[in-house]
């Protein structure tokens, strides 16, 4: 059964300009106010639960839903298995097939054993209302490295700050 796509008014959404510099693009990110997410796993390789959990732990009180229509944002995990550009383009096409406008967190996963390895930057993804981050993993776990910490910090910035209430 093909999933129903979700379309919203594009005027209400943030757009990432393809003519921006890399630094300007990295400063732009969607602001996500809801807590319901839908996971999209394009391609044939699927990330391990530990990797997904690492991303989800960054934002408290999230709730997974089973359809794109129900969600506030789409969480995409794109594992690079052949060429980065080809795999990313295929994942973006799959994302746009389920929703062209729903906010998305696009996590590009590069397999390596080297925490400081240079990998292709995926910031060329120019879909509206989408934050793209590159992460490194080995086997079935996130690597403990600067790149992953920075990526997770950027993901956190897409959500309003948590206000802690103290009981008195």
Automatic annotation (TrEMBL):
UniProt region (Disordered), positions on chain: 1-27
Alphabetical list of PANTHER family matching this protein: SI:CH211-245H14.1-RELATED
Record-given protein name: Uncharacterized protein
Protein source organism: Culter alburnus
């Amino acid at each position: 059964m093909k999933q129903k796509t979700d379309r919203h008014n594009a005027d209400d959404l943030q757009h990432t300009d393809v003519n921006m510099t890399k630094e300007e693009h990295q400063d732009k990110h969607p602001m996500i106010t809801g807590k319901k997410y839908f996971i999209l796993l394009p391609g044939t390789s699927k990330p391990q639960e530990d990797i997904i959990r690492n991303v989800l732990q960054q934002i408290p009180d999230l709730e997974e839903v089973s359809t794109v229509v129900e969600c506030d944002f789409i969480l995409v995990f794109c594992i690079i298995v052949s060429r980065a550009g080809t795999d990313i383009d295929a994942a973006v096409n799959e994302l746009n097939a389920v929703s062209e406008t729903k906010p998305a967190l696009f996590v590009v996963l590069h397999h390596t054993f080297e925490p400081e390895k240079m990998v292709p930057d995926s910031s060329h993804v120019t879909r509206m209302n989408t934050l793209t981050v590159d992460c490194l993993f080995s086997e079935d776990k996130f690597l403990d490295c600067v790149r992953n910490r920075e990526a997770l910090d950027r993901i956190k910035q897409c959500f309003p700050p948590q206000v802690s209430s103290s009981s008195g």
